[in-house]
Amino acid sequence: MHAIEKILANKSGKDKVETGEIVNAKIDLAEVNDLYLQVIKSFREMGGKKVWDRDKVSFVFDHYSPAPTLKAADNHKQMREFCKEQGIGKLFDINKGICHQVLPEAGLVYPGMILAATDSHTTTHGAFGAFGTGVGATDLASILISGELWFKVPEIIKIEINGKLKPGVMAKDIILNILGELGQDAAVYKAVEFSGSTVKEMDIDERMVLCNMSVEMGAKTSYIEPDEKTYDFLKDRIDVEYDPIFSDKDYEYDEVYEFDVDELTPQTAKPHSIDNIAPVAKVKEEKVDQIFIGTCTGGRLNDLKIAAEIIKGHKVADGVRLLVIPASDEVYQKALDGGYLDIFLKSGATISNPGCGPCLGAHQGVLASGESCLSTSSRNFPGRMGSTEAKIYSVSPAIAAISAIKGRLEKAEEGDPDGNN
Amino acid sequence: MEIIKGRAFKFGDNVDTDQIYPGRFLDISEHSAIAEHAMEGIDPDFTEKIAEGDIIVAGNNFGCGSSREHAVITLKEAGISAVIASSFARIFYRNAINLGLPVIEIKDMEVKEKKELTIDINNSKIINDSGEEYNFIPFPEQILEILESGGIINYYKNNLEG
């Protein structure tokens, strides 16, 4: 069996599961973000009185933090009241950040667990060998009542990534390249495993980018085999016993794809779909109005570090707005300690509090009609960040930083990855 | 389930949840208000064009993107009776079943814009305005019961009472 199948089997009390089988699996952590007051409404409508296990439920306020509208403020209020009523201690209020960063940092994500959350990017947690999957409000409400959810055991795709990345090329470029090759429906209903020498070399921050964006291929969940880097990340955070789950050597994948990244150059997803991929060097964009470094895809410490190193000593180009939003309070603190925020501030950037920010067009940098934005986020659908007449290019933090200095979508000069020519 | 009849409104591949229900309206939680923004990201006049019972027909990967349940609520509350697509993004598919909106996977069907379609869920077939029949894979019994109950909330209620 594959590790993903073993996790589903363990959690549904079975020795073995097969592709296509429907299982009822026990959920180790159910997380609700602040878009989903509907979870509480559905919970009540279903006749819910008490959540099945208050220690396995978490609320994270990230999409609308701090509340930009009266409705959002009221949603937060009702959620706080629900947590109080139910004795839910794992409420991460507006001061914490994005759920997919906050939960691992809080030691709530570990290999072999099942995490269901009201956010499609819950696939991110595959970077820890966990089964993370996004669900809607009603599914989440039914978990709050029963502690279980039905799953169809998915077909599993292996994406093997080998080779050594050139300086200035990031995990974001790899996953954009994969999306361009395979398309945004390549993994619908399926699960994706990332493996290979490049993934082994990657730190947790970069592994999270691959797993995060597997949902842009439609993936149900993703998986990277846990190793020393995983355990290192977890060791000072986790206070539960966990068993990493590994796949059997003879497991037969539904599909296998191999990518050699030795020669990979920075990539971008052009408007208006995430599989509309081109090398940055081949894209001519006449103007850029806004550049956004942040989100559960591109707002981690490694992202801010790389961007700050490029921007150091430079000013953001005239006519460009650079927004920087750390993914969590921990990232914020470390970026402060590392001097990165100082670099951004001196360059003329706008730094906002941890959260999802303008990624979903809710607040903190919404785009006007006719504007063009480079974003380290994972989605460039029409209207995603505001006007449907705005253009979004999804890029790596390195490209976002170089472009912020140049005032246009730009790759580093050959042999000068920092773009300081 | 009762036979569904409605006019077809056609869309292409990869219609995402930001097109179905733009993110800037996600703080709304009243269903009647959510209904006002159905498909606004792809066709701002959509809710004025459709009548109760109309049907969305789309290509691959309908409902991709975010997990927002608003995307299903908005279609259902706006009067859409079913969505037919070549394939669906999985979270949208689950949400639709959970809320009692029939979602039917079928490829290569001849459909004309605004012409009537008839969906016979119990016999898993669709008939277009020329009388051509297309079969789809039948829903499992439990899914059919959820759809018949109008969603999983009522399904739970019915089963708990029973």
Query: Per CATH, which architecture of chain B?
Result: Alpha-Beta Barrel
Number of helices of chain B: 7
The first-level CATH class of chain B is given as Alpha Beta
What is the CATH superfamily classification of the largest domain in chain A?
Answer: Aconitase, domain 3
Number of strands of chain B: 7
Overall pLDDT metric of chain A: 96
Looking at the chains present, what oligomeric state does this protein adopt?
A: heterodimer
In short:
The complex is a heterodimer of chains A (421) and B (162). In chain A, 31% of the residues lie in helices and 18% in strands. Chain A has helices spanning 3-11, 37-45, 70-86, 99-105, 137-146, 171-182, 197-201, 204-213, 228-235, 295-298, 301-311, 329-337, 340-347, 397-406; strands at residues 22-26, 29-33, 57-60, 90-92, 114-117, 131-134, 148-152, 156-162, 191-195, 221-223, 255-260, 267-269, 277-279, 290-294, 321-325, 350-351, 372-375, 391-394.
Using brief descriptors, characterize the structure shown.
heterodimer, A: about 425 residues, alpha/beta, Aconitase, domain 3, 2 domains, five-stranded parallel beta sheet, 14 helices, disordered C terminus, B: about 160 residues, Aconitase, domain 4, seven-stranded mixed beta sheet, 7 helices, 7 strands, about 20% strand
